[in-house]
Amino acid sequence: MKPSIEKLQKYFNLEADRGYDNKAVMGGLEKMLDSWEAEARNDQLPEELIQAVRMRLGDYETLSENSRRDALKGLWNRIRREEGKDITPEVEKQAAREERQPPKEAKPTPPPAPKPAAEPTSAEPDYETYEEEDAPPSQPKTKAAPPKKRQPRPAPDGPPAALEAPVTVLDGVGPRNAERLARLGINTLGDMLYHFPRRYDDYSQLKTINRLEYGDELTVIGTVQSATVRKLYGGKTQLVEIIISDATAALRITFFNQPWITKSIRKGLQIAVAGKVDQYLGRLVMTNPEWELVDEKNLLTNRILPVYPLTANISQRWLRTQMDKVVNYWALRVQDPVPLSVQRQADLLDLPDALVQAHFPDSWEDLKAAQHRLAFDEIFYLQIGVVQQKRHWAERTATAFSVEQAWVDAQLEKLPYRLTNAQQQAIVDIYQDLSSGRPMNRLIQGDVGSGKTVVAALGAAAVLQGGGQVAIMAPTSILAEQHYKSFTELLAGEEGLLEPWQVRLMIGATPNAEKDEIRGGLENGAIRLVVGTHALLEDPVAFQNLQLAVIDEQHRFGVQQRSVLRAKGENPHLLVMTATPIPRSLALTVYGDLDLTVMDEMPPGRQPVDTYILYPRERERIYNLIRREVNEGRQAFIIYPLVEESDKLDTKAAVEEYKVLQEEVFTKLKVGLLHGRMKPDEKDQIMTRFRDREYDVLVSTTVIEVGVDVPNANVMVIEGANRFGLAQLHQLRGRVGRGGGQSYCVLIPESETDTENERLKVMAETTDGFVLAEKDLEQRGPGQFLGTRQAGFSELQMASLTDVRLIEKARKHAQTLLEQDPDLQQPEHTLLAATLAQRWSQGEGDIS
């Protein structure tokens, strides 16, 4: 059944249910004719049928009850003949029932008079709902039809959508309202079209008052019987009480502290109220519902209602009105960048229709289809970008570094331990990339302690023995020092590829004279491997022959930083590493331009960290554990979510708790303090002193999360654990247990009843970072995985990075399209190419 016919059936059924009182639509059936006529033409109904419907319903108000019934029955019979649908609506069933009963006397006035009821509805009725003795039966539930394939709307006449036009072109939006909208990120008409509702309320199911039930969320239409204001609590609160009634019962409506409403809602007016039915002293009521006069445009009620994100001095009603203007005019004029062939193959709504349905859906099925289309667009554009980026990078040439197996075996024999199978596979992947003649673009994803550093060192060894230079970049000075020590041990010294002086460290604290010396050595090729922080990106740093860049904890570096480092060589190979396990859906999208190697095996002999959840009242047990381990020569971390106490957050903070711990709890131990507000040199100094055992306990924020290696630390206590993501907790847990022996991680949520505690139990159940990453993605979204990789594309509004099925669907269509037109040069792809250029602000730049 076509949507326009289905809508008529719905109205006719409801009208028969109500006894043909002309209230199935607010203001009467004729009020829906304009919108229905446009939809009917979109459905390509015969013009003669459209005019017949308009003629019959145009004078429906003036007909008697029996005449209304006959008019709808005759009209439906004609629709069935012309459209060939074997469907019997309620209007026909009702007519058949009535034909078996004595005919009712025609009434002289259009609206039906109220039938006798238990209580009168005039004057001041009882506030409880009262039921009509002979109320019509409720509308029978029909089996839901399968979703209809919506046909693309024909493009309307007029100019294409002026999406860059400022919002001030709208009536009612002056400079002040424009400033308020800007706080919501709305500056243009395009911003308005893509400012989607945060949720929807379903008020499309109308009921008469006598059929209301507690908990219903719907629309009720009635006539105002009274409107009064009274003061409560000594005048501090003003309660507005409105009594409305229909032909079946009465209902109390209450508004708090909105006395001005009585100026608009007056006795005798017919209004529609939309909201949740509540109960007070045994009586059904509605509190603070949406409302409107029935002779206004039916924007707020009798439909699925959008609820938008708001800001100060912007009301839901006002914003919906503005959205209605923009969506119903400009959305239909939006040009669709996704080629028609892709829309058909992917079974998508056209974009104009999707935008309309996303804001003002006709049904939940239409809303779901619209959201699917808009989510597909976001992932589709992202996939095209990452696939193009990967192809562009692969088309470049790079120096090939081939290694003989005998040389590889010799390097492995120098190691004091045997590599895991995962490490050996990662080395094979790296050597294949280095020998391909194309620049390597690989991400090594390995859990905390899986041995990524030695893998990177063996990759660097292949480049060094081939005459190239290598740069290792870390996000912090202390992690850079740690890498400098590890790479020197692995690659320099006795039987090493390099002399110790050929490996140098360059960080912010490096003296200027030494920096100058290092720059000179890099430029003339004397220094073969340099480890550093952002200092390596400074303009004076130039390399004679940079062939490999290794970036650790790559999500800590921005797009521009990685691009600058790459630019210091001619298509150098790139190896990036992360200890943050990346779920499959993100590996296909945000990291889709990188070749991925997963190291999911821990070195032999490393014991899992025992993890416990203890509550605030059990802190003394935790303190005793720390004292015991320190007495045995070990060290402990205590992590807090905040640096200093906050008026807004009732949670413990590092600075204040450090004083309590040192002065009252661990009076015989040495306690250190580390947090992100310290200067880099100061942080490095504190961390070095802890590593050198000058502190027994280190009180810190999450600045120690990444890469810090203190083998002697075996206790990790995390206060306010419910405030951290699982992936972040797993990273913190990975800071202990690196020196052998049993280690402990204790999670302390802020309360025993905190709903987050169920989530924390996963930490105690598994040490598998990939399981935790999937859980974290489901529960908290992708933010902690993205880092700075969002620079290349707009934020996702509709798409979920947990929806692997949608991601794979969009990726398949993106790959197919690019196989046919790699550079999007065909005429039908012009708009798509322009859209991508706008979304990918970096263009062909480095996104990895």
Describe the structure.
The chain has 848 residues and is α/β, with parallel strands linked by helices. It contains 27 helices and 21 strands. The strands form 4 sheets. A 7-stranded parallel β-sheet has the order 11-12-10-13-14-9-15, sandwiched between helices. Strands 16-21-20-17-19-18 form a 6-stranded parallel β-sheet, sandwiched between helices. Helix 1 runs antiparallel to helix 2. It is globular. The two termini are 50 Å apart. The C terminus is likely disordered.
Measured by DSSP, the beta-strand proportion falls in 5-15%
| Total helical segments | 27
Number of strands: 21
Sequence stretches where pLDDT stays below 50 over 5 or more residues: 85-93, 95-148, 788-794, 842-848
Q: What is the strand arrangement across the widest sheet?
A: 11-12-10-13-14-9-15
What is the molecular shape?
globular
Q: Gyration radius, to the nearest Å?
A: 35 Å
**Broad structural category:** alpha/beta
Integer average pLDDT? 79
Q: Describe the main β-sheet briefly.
A: 7 strands, parallel
- For the termini, the CA-CA separation is 50 Å
Query: Helicity range of the residues?
Result: 25-40%
Which features characterize this protein?
15% strand, 7-stranded parallel β-sheet, disordered C terminus, single chain, 27 helices, 848 residues, alpha/beta, 37% helix
